[in-house]
Design brief:
single chain, alpha/beta, disordered C terminus
Length: 413
């Protein structure tokens, strides 16, 4: 908590990092003097506080060591991170760039975001708060828009991620500066309320604002229940937990997640879903029904975010996970997952993505043909076609495909 209510000793770790020279997208360290003027007790929400500052660090191992030491402290931990995010094209992993990071040395000179997540997930839920103000490179921004930036269950995450600034301009950590300026004045409202004020003040409208503060444990029954799909021509929303118990319904995080997604806050929705998937993974195991449920939720969120490639990948992963649980190929949940993967693959307009996802979908379709005849042949026929035609425009279908059937099976009643 960052409201000055905790009497234990807390730790605040301030990380401000960005590449030197032409690769710099944000003046990350400019926020440190303002943060340094904030009373330490406000930064940690505790009476006693330890402040650790890392300004333009160069070595990811050194940063990891500092994070590990801070995470090992028994009291509340608050991390303030400003900098820029890059995407590793080999493994598609998000990295926090450091002072010596360049596009070609990213994997060796930047801090992988999952390193931070791994250290923080060992802490007791509800004792860790991360406040970010970062800018993303174009490819990282594209991924973050649909997948969010999660750190796992039990960790509060507030902040802002912006797309890259116009050429020859350097972004400012305006969100974090707004927080620090208000704190310096002696005003210290609840962080959730404060986040909304700082977000409105800092902008811009197309920024990804993170407000992940949901550490309550949902009902196991709610996470395990699957409801039938509503019949229509497109894939129905992912199975949603329902319950006649009002208390369980109040604890269900799905309404808030899908509300954020339909409001266009795709990164926030994806971050929340990833957090609950992490909770299910730690609570029930990787192949559990609860974990698969959240995998399917993320797949549907990718559909809402208009990322058919990611949605297709996640639906195929969900189908594989259900098959690994010894669910038969004609199990309705397995068929649904494959049908939705097939539908999302049909929506792809990127030739390379369609080619890459086609073979695993063919393999999956042969094992799970579904209830509509011709599904296997349809995938094979389209995949063969993809290898004979040039790349088409983002809003075009190849002429041979325009009248092709959709194999998104109507939902069950």
């Amino acid at each position: 908590m960052i409201n000055g209510e905790d009497t234990a000793s807390g730790t605040a770790l301030l990380i401000a990092a960005a590449p030197a020279g032409k690769g710099c997208l944000i003046d990350a360290t400019s926020v440190l003097p303002t943060l340094a003027a904030v009373p330490p007790s406000i930064l940690t929400g505790t009476t006693a506080a330890t402040i650790v500052e890392l300004a333009d660090p160069t070595d990811p191992q050194t940063v990891l060591t500092r994070i590990r030491a801070a995470a090992a402290a028994p009291g509340p931990l608050s991390l303030y991170i400003t900098g820029q995010l890059h995407l590793d094209h080999k493994q598609h992993l998000i990295h926090l760039a450091l002072a010596r990071t360049t596009p070609t040395t990213l994997r060796y000179t930047a801090l992988p975001w999952h390193w931070l997540a791994s250290e923080l997930k060992l802490r007791r839920p509800g004792t860790t708060t991360v406040v970010t103000d970062m800018v993303a490179t174009p490819d990282a921004w594209q991924q973050l828009r649909t997948e969010g930036l999660a750190l796992g269950y039990g960790i509060r995450v507030y902040g802002r991620i912006t797309p890259p600034p116009p050429r020859r301009r350097i972004a400012e950590p305006a969100y974090l500066k707004a927080l620090a300026t208000t704190w310096r004045s002696g005003i210290n409202p609840p962080l959730a309320q404060f986040h909304e004020q700082a977000a409105a003040q800092a902008g811009p409208d197309d920024a990804l604002f993170l407000a992940v503060d949901n550490t309550a444990v949902p009902s196991p029954a709610a996470s395990a229940v699957e409801v039938p799909n509503r019949p229509h021509q497109e894939p129905a929303p992912a199975p949603a937990p329902i319950s006649e118990n009002p208390r369980v319904a109040e604890e269900d995080p799905l309404p808030a997640i899908f509300a954020a997604a339909h409001a266009g806050r795709h990164g926030e929705a994806a971050s929340l879903a990833a957090m609950w998937e992490e909770w299910a993974l730690r609570t029930y195991s990787a192949g559990s029904v609860q974990t698969i449920h959240w995998l399917e939720v993320r797949a549907d969120l990718a559909r809402i975010a208009d990322d058919p490639a990611r949605s297709c990948e996640l639906w195929m992963a969900a189908a594989d996970a259900r098959l690994a649980r010894q669910q038969p190929p004609d199990d309705p949940a397995v068929e649904d997952a494959v049908d939705r993967a097939h539908h999302q693959w049909q929506e792809l307009r990127d030739l390379q993505q369609a080619r890459e996802l086609g073979p695993p979908l063919v393999s999956l379709r042969r094992h799970v043909p579904g209830r509509r005849p011709g599904a296997v042949e349809a995938v094979q026929r389209r995949l063969e076609l993809l290898h004979t035609i040039p790349q088409w425009g983002p809003d075009e279908r190849h002429p041979d495909e325009r009248q092709g059937p959709s194999f998104a099976r109507p939902g069950r009643t």
